[in-house]
């Protein structure tokens, strides 16, 4: 499916690279990437900041692992590679020179001469937006990235980016990467919100946290303590409406003989404006629902049930 107004033909579920070089060592990461391609995927998402949050890591670990895989397999033309700038500790922010330097360093780690999609990962209020937009356009015009994209921008700042691009004759961003899933919808959907702005601008949605930090895999049960390393990330979902939504996921998944995560991804994949939800896999075994979701078809009745459950659960997060 084409990503927004671009010519990038991406698979309907993208593979998040946040685990590569962190909870997945290089060998395991390569196996996950191999299996993803064999299973029909082609859209790999990373960032220069992955995985600076881990002890002893500095950022760039994920890109380096993907780069070693690209070099070993020779599959660069078979994949769409997206990366981001703004969060690597020594490359924070979106000042023009930082953006230019960051991309060149990302290309070295990825062992390629270009990325297909380059994101402004987080807004940088300390840098004039005109400077940032111009820097991204310069990199695009130089061929270091084929297309520009943004993530985590408010509706107001997204609109300003588009206005600046139009005023100067720059190409618009082709994708928006928002936090969006079955339980978290309010800041993407609705009049004047980011999804509507993106649709009007010809941008495709590439949601992250598509599985709500693992909550939508169905591994958590109401009344049971959450002791995993993601306990803090799923705390907002520990309420009755969210557990009820997961129960609907389980029922629909059982009818298809698939995992709940595959159903959650398929539901999100089919939301208006969404091109390719992102999900990560620490092991080849965890990749299974991602591959299933590439082609899983939900009935209209199943979609309606999930949406109704989502309406109640999403309201509990707002």
UniProtKB/TrEMBL annotation:
What the entry lists under SUPFAM superfamilies is as follows:
NAD(P)-linked oxidoreductase
Superkingdom classification of source: Bacteria
Question: Which residue numbers delimit the NADP-dependent oxidoreductase domain?
Answer: 12-309
Annotated GO molecular function terms are: oxidoreductase activity
Q: GO CC annotations?
A: cytosol
What this protein is called in its record is: Alcohol dehydrogenase
Q: What lineage does the source organism belong to?
A: Bacteria, Bacillati, Actinomycetota, Actinomycetes, Actinomycetales
